[in-house]
Amino acid sequence: MKRILMVATGGTIASMPEEGGAGLAPALTGEELAGYVPQARGLCDLDIVQPMNIDSTNMRPCDWRRIAATIMGVYDDYDGFVVLHGTDTMAYTAAALSYLIQDSPKPIVLTGSQQPMANPFTDAKLNLFQSLLYATDDDSRDVSIVFGGLVIVGTRAHKQRTMSFNAFTSVNYPLPAIIRNDRIVREGREGMTIPGAGARPARREGRPRVYERLDERVVVVRLTPGLGPGILDALDPGYDAVILETFGIGGIPECEGARFERAIFDWIGRGKTVVLTTQVSEEGLDLGVYEVGSAYANEPAILRGDDMTTEALVAKTMWALGQTREPAEVAKLFYRPVNHDRAAR
Asked: In the chain, at which residue ranges do the beta strands (DSSP E only) sit?
């Protein structure tokens, strides 16, 4: 029987109503959560640790490093890992773990729920069971989210719904597997075909590449009609990188007397990083299509998010800047595919 470590961090799955009608807050421990799913003990030899018990709204980059350190501190002792996490920032944490623990031959699975474990109509029990099931499978590896019967690559998840049980979607990348009750279905297994499924990854051996440093001074700015380029000057003192969510396939407005182009290149000239992406979830960025993006299309100092999620861009920019401040080296790290986060250039 495989050994699995469950890392409980809080979230809705662990929440109970607060006294005085203050709302839900994490209260149940990892041991208590496992007690609601006795079938889990039949899947694996399960150990549980609790590095924190917080609402995922309060999850910070220092907590990502703490989760990664918890896993890597006992990596050789276990066959897989399941991280219980709140849904609101789960996609950010899954992306961050993908960069902090790269090419893991052992599965690192994140899950949670839309309803607390103690709720009579919860989705928590099945999500927890299926995550442990996936973590014990011989073909599972690297960082992923298991939620609502879907397996989503850790760098491609986005929370699409606030209440429904199918909370997460995979952005611009196929599902590596789906789970039907207690059965994992992968492309080619038992003659089954998953619509849009990708090729099964080759088995890896050995240990992952581990990183500890992140630059937390990264901010996302979403363009809206009327927003002026002065926003970059306002952000200058507090941030080393800005991820600019452009219109459509890569449109950045230019108005007489208020030029984003000048502000963006001034930002770069001060030794800071600019990443351009699109605020549209599907299909990605192409700056060369329209005149309103063409000024940035062939500028090597501007990093292009292409088909990556904003969640992955935040984590990858923090990771890249945590390793080096040399622009050419930052770009090299940024454009290197990690856990299927971007189409190969």
From this structure: 3-8, 15-17, 24-26, 45-49, 80-84, 101-102, 107-111, 142-147, 150-153, 157-159, 168-170, 177-180, 183-186, 209-210, 218-222, 241-246, 254-255, 258-259, 273-278, 302-304
Helical H segments across the chain, by residue range: 30-35, 40-43, 61-73, 90-100, 124-135, 230-235, 260-269, 291-294, 310-323, 327-335
Distance CA 144, CA 135 (A): 10
**Digit-coded pLDDT (tens) for 184-206:** 999 755 444 555 555 555 555 67
- Residue 103 in 3-state DSSP? coil
Residue type, 27: A
For 264, list phi and psi in degrees, rounded to 5.
-65, -45
Residue 92 and residue 308 in contact, taking contact as beta carbons nearer than 8 Å: no
Provide the angle, in degrees to the nearest 10, between the axes of the packed helices 90-100 and 310-323.
Answer: 30
Q: Does residue 18 surpass a pLDDT of 90?
A: no
Distance separating alpha carbons of residues 128 and 146, to the nearest angstrom: 9
Q: What is the pLDDT of residues 245-287, one digit of tens each?
A: 999 999 998 876 568 999 999 999 999 999 999 999 888 988 8
Q: Which of 19-23, 58-62, 171-175 comes out lowest in average pLDDT?
A: 19-23
- The angle, 0 to 180 degrees and rounded to 10, between the axes of the packed helices 90-100 and 61-73 is 50
Give 123's DSSP letter.
S
Q: For residues 247 and 279, is the Cβ–Cβ distance under 8 A?
A: yes
What is the pLDDT at residue 191?
Answer: 44
Residues 311 and 157: beta-carbon distance below 8 Å = yes
Q: Catalytic site residues?
A: 12
Cα–Cα distance measured from residue 20 to residue 338, given in angstroms and rounded to the nearest whole number:
46
Q: Strand 241-246 relative to strand 254-255: parallel, antiparallel, unpaired?
A: unpaired
Q: Is the dihedral of CA 41, 47, 52, 56 positive or negative?
A: negative
d(C-alpha 26, C-alpha 53), whole Å: 6
- Residue 260 DSSP SS3: helix
- Residue 219's DSSP bridge partners are 242
Average pLDDT over residues 110-117: 97
Are 208 and 81 in contact by the 8 Å Cβ rule? The answer is no
